[in-house]
Design brief:
Tetracycline Repressor, domain 2; mainly alpha; 202 residues; elongated; DNA-binding; homodimer
DNA sequence: GGCGAACTATACACTGGTGTATGGACATCA
DNA sequence: TGATGTCCATACACCAGTGTATAGTTCGCC
């Protein structure tokens, strides 16, 4: 008993939710990847001790798995939201590019998280499964859109894959590369040309 | 003195070189990224204690910096070697793709190291500088090749960027993605088509 | 107002990591 | 042979992190 509790006020702060911990984890992941999520650090950032953590989560791994699950759910949901918002093929196509490519909100944290997840997937089986689910959904969606442009199903799928690969690749190399933002537009136009030409009479 | 040295034989093992430590680091990085290189682990893998490490290197950071320097030097060298080996534009083009894309040796360790370096570059200034140097060199080389195909310098540069981005992106998404190897060929053909068409009469 | 559940703090045991100081083994050369 | 330089082992101090056990606080509810 060397310390005084000093908590006379009724309720200074709301109790922490599981989601709050996941958000903190997201911040840590965006900063330094999955190896950077440490219970101790998150706790101090939330102004709480680890006692809270081990009430909400089984252990460290539980946190990571929960985070990955939430990440997948959100990515799949934003895809289906996109589908609902309708519009013609061209417009939706653009929107799906921007989703992974240059949507404003993506520019910092979400993008960094996405890349960190992909990186983690290279050494963690569960993360790999999650990433594959999301990739598949995105590519499928893109391919089904492209079937409005070309009739050849295989070709639609190849183009979708090309688009996706280019989109992700763009973010991977152009984040640490100068002349990025300017180039990204020109690349997008090049890609658009390909789609147009391939979509033609073959 | 609770232990017997037990080294009566004249010379059981060669003295370790700085490079051997860097190789061990490469293995660790390929497995689990830069956060996975730990002096203790490398030492035990080299069947040596950390005493050796701290003779060869200043500290942990020194190892990482040295590794990055060596990595850049090798990447730049393999580029200029490529330049020397000549051949027509088409052939060299293919070769440069495969260098980052599907060269057999790349399939596991070198590829994983490359992706780990890129990941590390997102949170480390020095690594970012290294990656940018290598990226620039590769893209420049690719662009200068493409000037044999198209006369428009800007277009050559854009195409080079597109090629590079697609190549890297392909490796990033298709490593954890099924139907990868088959798709990669079709993608490569698609890209080749673009180059051909763009290189045509505009 | 007393009970139980939800949440958090504290203290402890343990592991694994860095860095440093120091000494020992071995070779080379004067 | 002995001095010096190279390379590695050992021991120490220290810190950061996980996980667990336990106790304390606050709330809603009967």
């Amino acid at each position: 008993m060397s310390r005084i509790p000093a908590r006379n006020k009724p309720l200074e702060k709301e109790p922490l939710s599981r989601d709050a911990w996941l958000d903190a984890a997201a911040a840590a992941i965006a900063e330094g990847g999955f190896d950077n999520v440490r219970v101790l650090t998150l706790a101090s950032r939330l102004a709480v001790t680890r006692g809270s953590f081990y009430w909400h989560f089984e252990d460290h791994e539980d946190l990571l798995v929960s985070f990955l699950d939430r990440w997948r759910d959100r990515r799949l949901r934003e895809l289906s939201d996109l589908r609902l918002s309708g519009g013609d093929t061209e417009a939706e196509m653009r929107r799906i590019f921007r989703l992974v490519l240059s949507e404003p909100a993506w520019n910092t944290r979400q993008l960094r998280v996405e890349l960190a997840v992909r990186d983690f997937a290279r050494r963690d089986r569960y993360a790999a499964k999650i990433v594959e689910e999301v990739d598949r959904a995105r590519i499928d969606h893109c391919a089904s859109l492209l079937e409005n442009v070309t009739t050849d199903k295989q070709q639609a799928r190849d183009l979708a894959l090309l688009l996706y690969v280019t989109t992700v690749g763009g973010r991977v190399v152009l984040t640490s590369f100068r002349e990025g933002e300017a180039a990204i537009d020109r690349i997008e136009n090049l890609i658009a040309d390909i789609v147009a030409k391939k979509g033609g009479p073959t």
